[in-house]
Amino acid sequence: MSAPAYTPEPVLAGGPGPTAAELLDFALRTAADAEVVASLPLDPEGRTWVRLDGPSGSEAWLIGWPPGTGTGWHDHAESRGAFATARGRLTEHSLAVRLPSEGWQALHLAPDVDRSRSLDAGTGRDFGEHHVHEVLNESPTEHAISVHTYYPPLPLIRRYSRTGPLLTLELVERPEDWQ
After folding, report:
1. In CATH, what number is assigned to the domain containing residue 73?
2. What H or E segment, with its residue span, contains residue 31?
3. What was the pLDDT predicted at 13?
4. How far lies 127's CA from each of 26, 77, 83, 143, in Å?
5. What is the C-alpha separation between 175 and 51, in angstroms, rounded?
6. How does pLDDT run across 73-89, given as a tens digit for each residue?
7. Which of 18, 65, 172, 173 has the greatest number of C-beta atoms within 10 Å?
């Protein structure tokens, strides 16, 4: 699929790349662009996505979520990011704890680290490095669409399984696995 023609404004000059707040601003503005959102082909069973040009060299994606789909638990390694819901409602479950970036296979989580939020169309959130979460479209009937952006561009995604308080590292994906 080719990315829709969209030029974000403003484009930041130099520096360490866009902040998480600037990534969120881009995601919210893009999610509000009806033409960009309508350009995403939707599949009734599987998620769909197209890559967008994010601000100042960031990586951005427009993602379609059929009813009942989700990402599973994962993080975005050293990338900060943001996402905004363009259509429908997404639920994010996250962990309010910084995990070690390497050197472990399974961790027992404290009972007070779980967070949950719903993000209706027109809302979003930003996050820092090593943010562990899962994103879900819990609707039984409606597609959701969202915009996600990361800086630096994703070096990898770590995928986890979760059984109660036990979080287990299952897989490390590299860009060539999803591009």
Report:
1. 2.60.120.10
2. helix 20-31
3. 37
4. 14, 12, 9, 24
5. 12
6. 999 988 999 999 999 99
7. 65
- At which residue do the structure tokens 């779980």 appear? 114
142's tokens: 């409606």
* 38 located within any domain: yes
Strands of the 59-65 sheet, one edge to the other: 48-53, 59-65, 144-151, 80-87, 124-127
Mean pLDDT split into 10-residue runs, the chain, 179 residues: 35 66 98 97 94 94 98 93 98 90 86 96 95 97 97 93 95 83
Residues making up the chain, counted from first to last: 179
For 91-121, the pLDDT digits (tens) are: 999 999 888 767 889 999 999 999 999 999 9
Structure tokens at 37: 């959102």
Domain count, the chain: 1
b/e map 106-134, b = 16+ CB within 10 Å:
ebebeeeeeeeeebebeebbbbeebbbbb
